[in-house]
Amino acid sequence: MTENKGTYYITTPIYYPSAKLHIGHTYCTVMADAMARFKRLSGYDVRFLTGTDEHGQKIEKCADEAGVTPIEYVDAIVETILRLWEKMEISYDDFIRTTEDRHVKRVQDIFMKMYKKGDIYKGTYEGWYCTPCESFWTETQVEDGCCPDCGRPVKKMQEESYFFKLSSYADKLLELYDTHPEFLQPDSRRNEMKAFIEQGLEDLCISRSEFDWGIPVPIDEDHVIYVWLDALSNYITALGYPDEPELYEKYWPVNVHLVGKEIVRFHSIIWPAMLMSIEEPLPKQVLGHGWLLIDGGKMSKSKGNVVDPEILIDRYGIDSLKYFLLREYTFGQDGIYTNEVMLKRLNYDLANDLGNLLSRSVSMIEKYCGGVVPEAKLRDEIDEELISLATSVASKVEEKMDQFQFNLALEEIWTLVRRANKYIDEKMPWALAKDESKKDELDTVMRNLAEALRIVSILIIPYMHTTSDRMREQLGLADVEGVWEDAFEFYQMDGVKVSKGEQLFPRLDIEKELAALEEIGKAN
Ligand code: MSP
């Protein structure tokens, strides 16, 4: 049995249901899902939260343009998001919508706590607002009349608003970064945030009165609560804070808020300050990931360069897409997406390396051993090397995963896959099979391959659970649960009956696929 290592709470940002999600959003959710699955597999009691951020002027505008009410508008898009996650078998434990009663009521409670603490006052807001980003900017931050984050024009605003005394938390935030450098990683992001605070933190305008689509300010029905205050609260309202605190007491503080780099600012300044105001524990860590770019720029509907994950899944399967996203990009850095890079990965790593290893090995066990994994009778240096590598990968994967280095965790696993393929080439079982006196050697090779494959089938569970199931089916392990501890052992396959199945990943004709994807892209 896997020991219980305690709780692990991980969140994705809650997505704006202003348009269908693209591969960039999928990237973040796939990372969170892999981490949640990895932690569950290695013995943690995991809570994985995702959801949608449904209020604000931008949504109201989209709905208006579509001629529907805001709730009708978001309902339709949330439907597509839920379908996407279902299709991708994303293993979230809860999906929170900020329009749900449970959230609305609790955000109002949080607002009142901050108000009673004396941290909220009424004043006049004057400044620049970027509607698409739902962000306020000061005169000095605005660049040539445009939002410093997205580059779109900002508009001058002056209105009576409620303010949160964010400025009075500046010193405490700086102290947090100094005493808990792990709170915000990587270091470069933390230094940026420090510089931002040191420039002088202004109080934050937290209410709006020029539109209605939001949570009403409990003490003033002419105002709705600023979306970021509403949105950030989801991480605790989903746990029942403050009125049904059972889950909250169990899982808070969160282990990791996984967020894109442009929203690190909200998570590492506004959010901890809000928590300090309501006197609740702070997140253990905020991790900022990079963006997936197309042609060196951002994906956007208006540029028509949005990559639709559903098209890729329908064509190549969920595990191919997940493997590619996790293997190709380095956490924290931006990466460029192209169909060609993706297709090559699928061919080289999945069809050639993993797919071939399984099909060659299972075929040989069937051909030379009647499909039953024999006992290993011998052990030479080459066997020794394979065994010691195979039984050491799991702890290397643990190390890389602790650093959110998904690409390196997968690289460790593929080192074993490639080593096992090389083992076949070195041992040449087809030659051993021709010589009766080499039977023990042949058996040893077959057994060792079966063990290596069994270990791979466990190691890949967090990233490619359907492939793991398909491998285990062929390895005769369909009814045996993949347990993390078993990835450290090399003695479990003797006598197991294997049976050859379909190729895990068909080899793709890259030119043909590129043309097909181009066509589908045009049609969309
Ligand atoms: N609603 C806010 C988040 C509130 S969290 C309390 C929001 N929503 S969003 O839909 O615009 O973005 C959600 C996440 O998707 C962000 O972390 C963002 O970085 C990520 N991505 C959007 N486009 C992306 C890429 N092209 N690449 C990688 N991640 C991207 O912000």
Protein architecture, described:
The chain is α/β, with parallel strands linked by helices. 49% of the residues lie in helices and 14% in strands. It has helices at 23-41, 57-66, 70-87, 101-116, 170-179, 187-198, 227-232, 234-237, 246-251, 264-277, 309-316, 318-328, 339-369, 381-390, 393-402, 406-427, 429-432, 439-459, 465-474, 510-523; strands spanning 7-15, 45-52, 94-97, 120-130, 135-137, 155-164, 184-185, 204-205, 207-208, 216-217, 220-225, 256-260, 286-289, 292-293, 335-336. The strands form four sheets. A six-stranded parallel β-sheet has the order 3-2-1-12-13-7, sandwiched between helices. The protein has a four-stranded antiparallel β-sheet with strand order 5-4-6-8, covered by helices on one side. The protein has a three-stranded antiparallel β-sheet with strand order 9-11-10. Strand 10 (216-217) and strand 11 form a beta hairpin. Helix 12 packs across helix 16 (406-427) and helix 14 packs antiparallel against helix 16 (406-427). The protein is elongated, with a radius of gyration of 26 Å. The chain starts with 6 loop residues before the first strand and ends with a helix. The model has no long low-confidence stretch (mean pLDDT 95). 5'-O-[(L-methionyl)-sulphamoyl]adenosine binds next to strand 1, helix 1, helix 7 and strand 12.
